[in-house]
Known about the structure:
The protein is flat. It folds into 3 domains: 86 residues, no CATH class; 75 residues, no CATH class; 207 residues, Zn-dependent exopeptidases (Aminopeptidase). The N and C termini lie far apart (93 Å). Helix 13 crosses helix 18 and helix 15 crosses helix 18. The longest helix has 39 residues. Strands 8-5-9-12-10-11 form a 6-stranded mixed beta sheet, with helices on both faces. A two-stranded antiparallel ribbon has the order 1-2. The chain has 521 residues and is of the alpha/beta class. The chain is built from 18 helices and 12 strands.
Amino acid sequence: MMMQGKHIRERTSGKEHRGRNIREGTSGKEHQGRNIGEGTSGKEHQGKISGEEHQGKNIREGTSGMNMKTERKERTYMKQIRHLLSFICVLTCALLLPHSLTLAATGKTDGGNGTAQEPVAAATAVYKGVDYSRVYDYDFYTTHNSVAKRYAGKPEKAIAYFVKYGMDKQHQACAGFDVVSYRFGCPKLRKQFGTDYKKYYLHYQQTGYKKAYYRKRATGITSMQEPVTRYGKIELGAIYDYFYYISKYPFVVSKVGDDDTAVLRNFVEKGLERGRTGKDPGKYKEADPSSKTYAKLKKEITKTNAYDGTGIVVCIDPGHQKQGDYSKEPVGPGSGIYKTKVTSGAYGRWSGKNEYEINLEVSKKLRDELIARGYTVVMTRTKHKVKLSNIDRAKIANAANADIFVRIHANHISESSQVHGVLCYAAAKNNPYLSKKVIKGGQRLATLLRDAQAAATGQRKLDNMYENDMTGINWAKMPTCIVEMGFMSNPTEDARLGRDRYQTKIANGLANGIDRYFKGA
Length: 521
């Protein structure tokens, strides 16, 4: 309702006052300068203020004036009321606008009572901060999967079950993505991920959906495309065919699964030894176990001690960097002991190179050799101008879910230039930051790498060192060791470390050691 007691414009007199509010219910006659109450007659309203001019005063019905002090209080009060109402309006709009936009975008309401219904799938496709909306749909999953049906009406539990268990069981959780089809249709991903099914889901969710090649393989493929026939550096396609082998020896799939890499490994490690046929000898004579080709390939694999690293991730850390960072970081999770983050390493007088340079040169050669053998390789750095602490390097290995972490260094002691040889560092048995399994794996890796490098280069084997204050080892979640390739303080060894051919020998030796680690030697 309109409030009585409106402000009268300044400079009014006892004459007619124009611009006043006239209330509903008046008789329709002119009302000059007055507020006429509801239901009044057509007569002029009495109660004017006597002939003096009254500037800015409120005239109430039936009154002849008002105390100025009271008038000011009323104006202040009304101003406060208006400000409060404005604030409430602004606050209400701020709260309701996002809600209204959601309704407009989704076109969904509860049927007219003004409240929005959030789309269930959109609201539940994120689990622990990770978005799975391109590989997961709540309605599809709880409708088509017999196990997931129990979570109908429980969207949070449904997505949690899918991420924790459904991915490993290769569940199809939406119409647009089938992990079986994706794995069958993407040979490069199979080589990289093996049977780690969760990685296929994440690959499509994060990057695969952007490319037509992967989108075409997201559904509809029911058989293995381009099964692997290369074992390490040796091509076995002349005597081996994936489909023939699993059809002739179906028990192989029950033992190792249908992964093409695992099946090929079974043929190499078991089939060749037992004279199994890997390809139809009726169509391909060279596939007969008695053929020269079969015998030659078998001999080559045995001679080279070849190992196929497909599906295995190796993280290589070329030690040090051009510019050291001498601030401190904890040597292990929760540790109160701090060490320098990273240094630039030693300098070789006879090689004329810095340690960080030699470390990267050897690391790149090792990377290339491992890739040729089928491994997936992650490098912590590929250039000298980086800013990576030892913790940062371990975190790179952790983020890559690496199976092992190999850190490449060169040694240096100022006390003597006569010391030479190869050794490795690994965690001690009582390391407080690592599990027993990781500690044991790291020590075994250190022994195999030291022995393999010494065999490749003719170096002397020194005793390995087991410590608890090596930051890059303590922060890693997988077996880790530091390879000290030789002493830059020794003239002969330093000069050799700087030579390309010698570095290749080191890289090949370390690759052999990694092969033996995964082969179980």
